[in-house]
Amino acid sequence: MIYKIGAFKVNASSPFVLVAGTISPIYVNNRMFERCPDERIKAAEYLATYIDSEIGCDNFDAISGGELADLPFSHSVANILKKPHITIRKEDKQYGMIGAKRIMSEVKKGERVVHVADLITQATSALSWCDAIISAGGKVENYVVLFDRLQGGEQALSARGIKLHSLVRMDEKFFEIGIEEGYLSRETYKEIEKYLLDPLNWATNFLTNNPDFIKNNIKIEGGKITNRTGLDILTKGYPELKSEFEEKVKSWLKELGCEEAVPEFNYNP
Questions:
Q1: pLDDT above 70 for 98
Q2: What is the number of structural domains in the chain?
Q3: Are residues 13 and 64 in the same domain?
């Protein structure tokens, strides 16, 4: 279904920037399920059956989902399993009954929560969702995803005592299905393999050979930075490259008319 609805995308010449600031020639956009009701319903049913089998409905009290990508799945799963649903905001809000909290409803003290997410890569968002539940007094021992990119998320959660359950894994079987069904060529898969074998080396080579990719992901309007994606690639995704690109970044910021200081690159107009 992920292939069928066009959720799996490949672009090695203009890679995708992920939440952690890293870049990838592959991107899984499970929000495409929102446009495909039959597949969305079936995916939710698969997840609910998987959770009941792997975890057991008697072993948890509620389902949570983070805005926005998780919610089409987490709401449906909670309905199917007849469990309370907890929506988690990306950031704190100062209004509403809860006040400056990320939880939109409530978490009861000691409540055992299973988080349902659309996918996981390095667990940057996953740990944030879990922290919000724990801070509100709940417990998170199980984290369930529709798709696991197999790029460190499981290990990051395990280090916090949280078990990852993945309905679909981005393994050889996943790619073989794509090739067999005609959604993926073997030539494209070879390019993907180069990235999967050593994501850091692949990204380092790409950024070194295509520095304008970083520049093109910096936007300045009225002297202010309105898009920091290019900066995040170097500060969050690949800090080991920051010093190598510092002079280039300062030159780009000046060229683009940046009128605010950017301390992380020693830029001061």
A1: no
A2: 2
A3: yes
